[in-house]
Amino acid sequence: MVITVSGNKKEVAEGLTLLELMKQEKVEMPDYVTVSINEEFVESDAKESTVLKEGDNVEFLYFMGGGC
Q: pTM (2 decimals)?
């Protein structure tokens, strides 16, 4: 099936979970990354049980701290 990950179309296996995708994409510090699928945020404890579907649009959001 085809999904979009961070703006890039990717062919992935049917039944792929969000957590498996994060491992495939080598997401650093996955516990600190916010994920949206089709512009809806996924709860942290749902990453393992969320199964991706054909046409899903997945975005990984990394929050950076800073300032003086």
A: 0.88
